[in-house]
């Protein structure tokens, strides 16, 4: 995921400026060097949030991405073990057995 060049504080401030109605959205985009598409993405994603909320959301998104990577790695390892079992003609262990029952 591409890192934003804007901090949480800047995003919230830009959205608050837009909500105040002092400048048009086009003026805000020009002043801050933001595309209209980026502005709408921010508005949809961060509308009504405070700086701490945005920071917390980004941290949760990072954690979620890390957990997805770990799960994908685990699934690859399981697939490799299953392929090894099949190659050697061994029976696959029953996943429901061996757990605390």
Automatic annotation (TrEMBL):
GO molecular function: DNA binding; transposase activity
Listed Gene3D superfamilies: Homeodomain-like
UniProt cross-references to InterPro entries, sorted A to Z: Homeodomain-like_sf, Transposase_8, Transposase_8_domain
GO biological process: DNA transposition
Protein's name in the database: Transposase
The organism of origin for this protein: Candidatus Nitrosymbiomonas proteolyticus
